[in-house]
Write a structure and sequence with these properties.
single chain, 2 domains, mainly alpha, disordered N terminus
């Protein structure tokens, strides 16, 4: 866990700075310079771009996780594995682009009634998706080389700084909204360009189709694995995009702008978890390669425990101050409070069971995951059809929460019965009870007529004292204590 914590801390620190930039961009500057409808357009183009990337990747991203350890040999250019993965990706881009253009009118018909402004920017989904996909492929390749920092820096810092610059240009009237959307799509080529330069610096940029040295038998295995994981990956991303797509279809771009802004807030609370998963997932592949079940089981429990503590803690900090945080947004964002609550219920369980997906998809039983993926898509889609017309954007959040809870419970049970691996310890139950208690105590403390900033500071301090203070004093979660100690040492030595 030492290597995981060390790299996770570095990436968390970088991601935290990126989070500040992202919050300034989407949580402040977007609200200051754009209308809610324009925010909806930008975020809808992004959501469809991410979906385009996942349609196009043809499973190459996850095949790198699974199979790169078997081909890892720098002297032999890793047997041309990067070139092979990129060829799969370029084929996917060509095919998906073809269908994206052929069915353009059909897709535009969906948005013509409620979200007509989006039609002007339909084609800019493609470059955003291509740039994002190239980043994903190179990022997971670097992750397999246990190089995580520059990838996070490129996406979380460099990209967001460029977006901040574009927002400044828009605010100064140097560009109009159309120019911004176009530039916003094109800047997604910046992170993969950074990674290409970094790989060249490392001497790991092996791109030569003629030097692909992978047997036909192994290619068949990779293709089969990629095909199944392609559907699984597509399913997860489709679930994340379905809310945005269906809200834009049934309600309109203003509601899309509110919903996607709240989604960004929930994503911000997942930064430490994503850092842990980023570092842990390649190690899971190594454990499968070595059939090291004891260390896999240990890593699963440790990552789940740390994710539970950090994720639950950040949710509590946010929830006890939710009225304060939303007081800075436009009045139409008030509905987003319950969107945040329900989304976080699903995300918290997703964080808690985080590694079960990587254990599942890296195993020989990965094909069965397709059942869970199709179930996830079906649940979200049909619940959205029913709940969005009744409850609006809150209905979409409820749909996602229910789907994520059922999806993760199903995966958890499968992994347990197949491999006798689970993430639970008795300490985790105490942490959950402590978290619920912290919320009840803090929200019921009378604040009288104190200034809202003083209330925010008091609630935050008391929450930290009750939740994290108790965990540290009673040593309820040793791995979290070690993680936080490393954070404090980093701060002292900085």
């Amino acid at each position: 866990m030492g290597l995981v914590q060390k790299d996770a801390l570095r990436t968390t620190i970088i991601s935290s700075f990126g989070l500040i930039l992202g919050y300034l961009n989407k949580g402040l500057f977007f609200l200051l310079v754009f209308s809610t409808e324009q925010i909806g357009v930008v975020n809808l183009v992004f959501s469809l771009g991410v979906l385009f990337a996942q349609f196009s990747n043809f499973g190459a991203v996850y095949s790198i996780w699974k199979f790169f350890p078997f081909f890892k040999n720098k002297e032999n250019n890793h047997h041309g594995f990067l070139s092979f993965s990129l060829l799969m990706t370029f084929l996917g881009i060509a095919i998906v682009t073809f269908f994206f253009l052929v069915f353009r009118s059909n897709i535009e018909d969906i948005y013509e009634s409620k979200s007509p402004l989006f039609l002007d920017f339909y084609l800019w989904v493609i470059p955003l998706g291509v740039g994002y996909l190239m980043y994903l492929v190179l990022e997971v390749y670097l992750r397999s080389l246990f190089k995580n920092v520059i990838s996070v820096l490129a996406m979380d810092i460099v990209l967001r700084l460029v977006v901040s610059l574009l927002l400044l240009f828009f605010w100064l009237d140097w560009i109009d909204f159309e120019d911004f959307v176009v530039a916003h799509s094109l800047v997604f080529f910046v992170p993969p360009l950074v990674l290409i330069i970094y790989l060249k610096y490392l001497g790991e940029l092996f791109i030569n189709p003629k030097k692909i040295n992978i047997s036909k038998r192994f290619k068949k295995i990779i293709f089969n694995y990629s095909a199944f994981n392609y559907m699984n990956t597509l399913g997860r991303v489709l679930v994340n995009a379905l809310d945005v797509i269906m809200i834009a279809q049934f309600i309109g771009l203003k509601a899309t702008g509110v919903y996607t802004t709240v989604v960004f807030l929930t994503s911000a609370l997942q930064v430490p978890y994503k850092s842990l998963i980023r570092v842990s997932s390649p190690i899971i592949s190594e454990h499968w390669k070595n059939r090291d079940f004891s260390n896999m089981r240990l890593l699963y429990r440790q990552v789940s425990s740390v994710s539970l503590v950090v994720g639950l803690g950040l949710f509590i900090f946010t929830w006890v101050n939710i009225d304060f945080l939303f007081s800075f947004l436009k009045p139409e964002f008030s509905e987003g409070i319950w969107v945040f609550f329900f989304l976080m219920m699903g995300r918290l369980l997703d964080m808690y069971f985080g590694l079960n997906g990587h254990i599942f998809t890296s195993s020989k039983k990965y094909r069965y995951d397709l059942i869970f993926t199709f179930s996830l898509i079906g649940i979200v889609y049909f619940l959205n059809l029913y709940l969005i017309p009744i409850y609006g954007i809150v209905g979409a959040a409820i749909s996602t929460a229910i789907a994520l809870i059922l999806y993760n419970l199903g995966r958890l049970l499968f992994v347990y019965f197949a491999y006798s691996i689970h993430p639970f310890t008795w300490r985790q139950l105490l942490i959950i009870i402590l978290g619920i208690t912290s919320i009840i105590v803090v929200v019921n403390i009378p604040m009288f007529d104190l200034n809202i900033w003083i209330q925010f500071i008091l609630r935050t301090f008391i929450t930290g004292l009750i939740f994290f203070g108790t965990i540290l004093i009673l040593n309820l979660e040793p791995e979290t204590k070690n993680y936080l100690n490393k954070v404090f040492r980093f701060i002292k030595t900085s």
